[in-house]
Specification:
Number of domains: 3
Number of helices: 15
Radius of gyration: 29 Å
Largest sheet: 6 strands, antiparallel
Distance between the termini: 52 Å
Helix content: 25-40%
Shape: elongated
Length: 494
């Protein structure tokens, strides 16, 4: 991205004009371990805590203050960039006579993300942009979209991040911009060495040269940058005073050992589905179908730290087994399940976990069909058919579809398996399940196919929302009977 490179070059070029440092843990009033983070063992979030604009620029009259930040990290083997822009409206407290006033911003620049591998890069800048009405409106628009990014569900953030970043690039191309204060740092894990290891705590960028500020006096009290008595004691908590006369940005890197479990939507939905199935007395399909799907989802999720995969599998499996044996149980959230103590596990379960670890080690795992293939060599055609029926009984169409593909690979000449594979084939659906109502209609049509295929064998059918609209001996004869084919399943039944 050209903006990333441009900001990096500007920061390096102007580096002598400002001071950047990570504040030692003994210069912060609240506990921060300052312990380097091991890859795969924690979750991170980066905050813009506080900022100040000095009176050295005619802010809001001739130039707009714009705070831009971008955080780059590895997610599931791919580099992602989360952008942010604070528009002038977000900085209204700094306007007019309030310049030189410190404002508590406390805004998350990123959602909570697992640090599993690679590097974490932070790029931030306080820019001034020549004021004009069109530029001001564009800044406000991009700012509103930018504020949508730090939501709990990281997968949704990724979808929006790229267009927001392109919008910021376009903004900076249109307006005459000037970097007033910049920060660029690359953090590595505990084994990376050097002073740039990823760790929790506060760091700051100040528009000042080394000779202007005694950095040993800098401290943080109540999320605010202060000048206080130097040394390792906490005297600065009493005599610390605001840092005045300088533009600066104060950041905080948050470290957490647990994810926001309820944000893991795909895993949460599978666990909810399993609980519903057990409540309906269908524990066996849960064991054979949903549990493998849950394990797959956990190990494939780029939003779960590596160290959490095993505990998640064991806790969820233990809970589902517990309520399955009872035949009922109080419905629990994913968060509640993850608060349970880690269950004891035997050599067999340990070996199963080791297999999962090996299977997913290279991130080359394909959709759930790959999991279906495990230990399939001794299965009969009837075994496959029973598994497909069990999946359909609990409404898990995708798993049934995956099993049908695998069954056809083992038994290509079996007429019953061919029938399942044909009906379940994804290419037959001509609508996209983009919302709950559409998904409901598709499920109804698929149910109709399962119940009525024998009656209409050899014919073309048009089915919508579980209702037969038309039937014919050919596709052309079928289509002429329909005014509109949108949302309609059109297929021939063999």
């Amino acid at each position: 991205m050209k903006l990333w490179q441009s900001v990096a070059e500007s920061v390096n070029r102007e580096a002598k004009k400002y001071k950047t440092l990570f504040l030692p843990e003994d210069r912060v009033d609240v506990g921060s371990s300052g312990t380097p983070i091991q890859a795969g063992e924690a979750y991170c979030r980066i905050w813009l805590v506080e900022m100040s604009l000095a009176k050295d620029v005619d802010w809001f009259k001739q130039r707009y203050p714009v705070v831009h930040a971008a955080v780059r990290f590895d997610r599931g083997g791919k580099s992602v960039t989360i952008p942010y822009i604070a528009a002038p409206g977000n900085l209204k407290e700094l306007a007019k006579d309030n310049l030189d006033r410190v404002i508590q911003y406390n805004y998350p620049l990123t959602p909570l993300f697992p640090f599993n591998q690679g590097l974490v890069e932070l790029q931030a800048g306080l820019f001034s942009i020549a004021a004009s009405d069109p530029i001001g409106k564009l800044i406000e628009t991009i700012g509103r979209f930018s504020k949508l990014l730090p939501v709990p569900e990281l997968s949704k953030v990724i979808d929006l991040a790229d267009p927001v970043y392109r919008g910021i690039e376009d903004l900076f191309d249109l307006g005459e911009r000037r970097l007033e204060l910049g920060y660029h740092q690359t953090f590595s894990d505990a084994g990376g060495g050097g002073s740039n290891t990823l760790k929790d705590g506060y760091f700051v960028a100040i528009l000042a040269e080394d000779s202007e500020i005694n950095t040993s006096q800098l401290c943080v009290v109540n999320d605010s940058l202060k000048i206080g008595s130097p040394g390792s004691t906490k005297v600065f908590m009493r005599d610390g005073k605001p840092l005045e006369g300088y533009s600066y940005m104060l950041f905080r890197l948050e470290k957490r050992t647990a994810q926001d479990w309820e944000s893991l939507t795909s895993i949460k939905e599978l666990v909810d589905q399993a609980q519903d199935a057990i409540s309906a007395g269908k524990y066996e399909p849960v064991k054979t179908l949903l549990l493998p799907a849950i394990k797959t989802a956990i190990y494939r999720s780029p939003d779960v730290a590596k160290a959490d995969r095993k505990p998640m599998v064991l806790k969820i499996e233990d809970y589902l087994r517990e309520i399955g044996l009872q035949g009922k149980g109080e419905r629990r959230s994913l968060y509640s399940i993850m608060q349970r103590p880690l269950p004891q596990f035997d050599a067999e379960r340990e070996a199963e976990i080791a297999t999962l670890e090996k299977l997913f080690a290279k991130n080359t795992f394909q959709p759930s069909t790959d999991l279906v293939r495990i230990n399939n060599d001794n299965k009969t055609a009837e075994d496959f058919i029973q598994e497909m029926d069990a999946a359909l009984d609990i409404g898990n169409w995708q798993t049934a579809q995956d099993i049908s593909i695998e069954a056809a690979r083992y038994y290509p000449d079996n007429r019953e398996i061919y029938r399942y594979a044909y009906i379940l084939a994804p290419s037959k659906v001509t609508v996209s399940p983009s919302d709950p109502e559409k998904r409901k209609n598709i499920q109804a049509s698929r149910k109709w196919m399962k119940e009525n295929w024998q009656k209409y064998r050899g014919n073309w059918v048009a089915v919508k929302a579980g209702e037969l609209l038309a039937t014919a001996k050919s596709f052309d004869e079928l289509v002429v009977q329909l005014e509109n084919t949108q949302g309609t399943l059109l297929t021939v039944i063999h």
